[in-house]
Amino acid sequence: MDKRDSRVSRKKYFYTGLASSYLLIALNFGFTAFSVPLALHYLTKAEFGVWALVVQFSAYLLLIDMGVSASVSRLLADHKDDKEGAGYGKIFYSSLFVSVGQGLALFGMGAVVSWLAPVLANVPGDLRTVFSRLLILQAAVTALSLAFRSLSSPLWSHQRLDISNVSNGLGLLLGLAGLWWGFTRGWGLYSLIFGTSLGAIPGLIVPFLACRLLGYYPPWGGWRQMQKSDWKNLFCFSRDVFMVQVGSQLASATQIIVVSRFMSVESAAIWAIATKAFMLGQQICQRVMDASAGALAEMSVRQERGRLAMRFGQVVESTAWFSAVAGLAIIFLNTPLVILWTGGRIIWPAHENIWLALLLLSTCAARCHLSLGGITKEMSTLRWIQMAEGVAMLGISMLLVNRLGFLAILMGSLAANLSLTLITAQRLSSQRLGVPTAEMLGWICPSFLFLLVGSCLVSAIEHFFPATDTGPAALILRCALAVFLSALSFRFCIRSETRHELWLRFFQQKRPAT
């Protein structure tokens, strides 16, 4: 395939991957919109908090993957143009054997953690037994998914994010059906496990069938050619990815455990529900980088440095703009929507939405630069700064949470991400791409400015229309302000050349050839 055809394929897979990603997010939004009220109808707030803790502990158990899955996908990209060659085959089959062993280890670790976690998370005594059972069952489902995760690794290296999104979308639909079925039959908390189990099935079957039909799997027997040096390369890169993942978990998935431990299980339920918009915003904003990663990796492998720098800049500024738009929606609408969503059972302080919005933009921008390290396979420094961010966030949160509550966790998360990860990762990206740091700051600073403007506006209208006012007039005003600022931000947060390219791509009518 020549360079021009390669670029056409990159664009095609990027747009199909991005479109399917947003369709998946829409399905995920629908899943959340239906599942949370459904769960709160059949469960108490404490029981819902228990399930939220089970999900977070299972996310920590997934760290036993040790970065192998992400590393394999990236290493396969180095050899994807020669699927019949030894390099491609030995990486794929060796990773498959490793992932099966990791799945078994995860289940064993889950059995051990199920006895320790209730004490660590300060779970009420009457819920500890069911919490332990749920964690063991969740560990079994997670272990099965991990054991066969390598079967889908060629999809990333071949830029077929759309197929992964289809399987995940089917999983959400099956999961929601299983959840409803279990609750209507009185299974209580075990309905959540049943839904999770059904939702995992498409993730095992669809990628396998797709890779087989598209010829992404190498010939059988490639694992026999794996040499000691190949194992070393795989696990050295996996080690760096693993440390970044551990730091990411500490920084982003530990908050609910801190809330449960130092506040209450009910507070954990409030945190889990009130930050749903934040997590949805992360999914929306990070999809641009996810859809681009395969193409950027191909540019890195083929030494297209100038094009890599240009496209990466467009990805960062687009991600920052999406984050600003999502952040404005959180600032203006999160509190009233949480009240409406939960029927007034949960009220989230309005001023903490500002911190959520700033944290959203900071983490999404930082993730772009972290991803570039994985794309170029230069992770040695990044692994330490991500770990430092997680430790700093935990320290600040635990020190102040008794006095400031949720605000302590948000402030600690933002301070750690801005001062450690974003600044350092951006400097490293500048060195790798040869782009001045000042130019990189120009990719994200306008988006931060618009969030600050939105914060001032919401503070100004708070006296006339409090965040707890869910009346039509208040909601219409908040929506109007969020939409106006979002439209205005596109003009100032996206560079003219990027806007021009988007216009040509989506709006200019193609004239027939004469």
Description:
With 514 residues, the chain is mainly α. It has a domain at 275-505. Helices cover 81% and strands 0% of the residues. The chain contains 19 helices and no strands. Helix 5 (128-147) packs parallel to helix 8, helix 12 packs parallel to helix 14 and helix 13 (305-341) packs antiparallel against helix 18 (472-493). 49% of the residues are buried.
What are the defining features of this structure?
514 residues; mainly alpha; disordered C terminus; 19 helices; disordered N terminus
Shape: globular
What portion of residues belong to β-strands? under 5%
* Helical/strand content category: mainly alpha
Give me the count of strands: 0
Low-confidence stretches: 1-5, 509-514
Straight-line N-to-C gap: 28 Å
Average predicted confidence as pLDDT: 82
The percent range for helix content is: over 70%
Our Rg estimate from Cα atoms comes to 23 Å
Our count of helices gives 19
Major beta sheet summary: none
Give the SSE string: HHHHHHHHHHHHHHHHHHH
